[in-house]
Write a structure and sequence with these properties.
heterodimer, A: 11 strands, 0% helix, globular, B: mainly beta, 4-stranded antiparallel β-sheet, 11 strands
Chain lengths: 107, 122
């Protein structure tokens, strides 16, 4: 299976700040990388697919980049509602696998 | 707007079979470049992809669960189902059904059910 490793596992940042979460794949996965946001008690919500394509309805402050093994999710100007856990997922090869999650707290 | 809703027993005894159904509304499971999948999440932990079924009925399973998993569809009811046999406490989790969108060649889960909690306990 392809292993996905996210960093950091948790972080805290203030409203308006820029936040970056990284995801590394254990082998090259081209741009087959998705990002999800999950709030407590809710299902995950797709933010970014194909590494950098913004899902319809997702605010433009969210962006993704990367290819190969290293990827980033950036929130350009943090908002209070962005408090959540973020997961990356590779869709290069089944079984599709997720990172362990990054818990984002708003200061 | 596509909606998915999981249903099934919330409590299953060890060694028995977990059975869940996902009812899809707002779109047909028989059409489009879509897979219909199951994903689970133990409390406080990460996400695990269980498997999926395509509109043709073909299935793909996670090898870690393959010997115990069956995903099937009932197109007349616009539903797909999960069966997981010989369950143990390690199978206790929130179970989600989701649509995997394969348009543009990049699979991503763009619609999810709200999830259903299954506890394995005697």
């Amino acid at each position: 299976d392809i292993q996905m490793t996210q960093s950091p596992s948790s972080l805290s940042a203030a409203v308006g700040h820029r936040v970056t979460i990284t995801c590394r794949a254990s082998q090259r996965i081209s741009s087959y990388l998705n990002w999800y946001q999950q709030k407590p008690g809710k299902a995950p919500n797709l933010l970014i697919y194909a590494a950098s394509s913004l899902q319809s309805g997702v605010p433009s402050r969210f962006s993704g980049s990367g290819s190969g093994t290293d990827f980033t999710l950036t929130i350009s100007s943090l908002q209070p509602e962005d408090s959540a856990t973020y997961y990356c997922q590779q869709s290069y090869k089944t079984p599709y696998t997720f990172g362990q999650g990054t818990k984002l707290e708003i200061k | 707007q596509v909606q998915l809703q999981e249903s099934g027993p919330g409590l299953v005894k060890p060694s028995q079979t977990l059975s869940l159904t996902c009812t899809v509304s707002g779109g047909s499971i028989s059409s489009g470049n879509y897979y219909w999948s199951w994903i689970r999440q133990p409390a406080g932990k990460g996400l695990e992809w269980i498997g999926r079924i395509y509109t043709s009925g073909s299935t793909t399973y996670n090898p870690s669960l393959k010997s115990r998993v069956t995903i099937s569809e009932d197109t007349s009811k616009n539903q797909f189902s999960l069966k997981l046999s010989s369950v143990t406490a390690a199978d206790t989790a929130m179970y989600y059904c989701a649509r995997e969108n394969d348009n543009l060649g990049h699979d991503r889960s763009d619609y999810w059910g709200q999830g259903t909690l299954v506890t394995v306990s005697s």
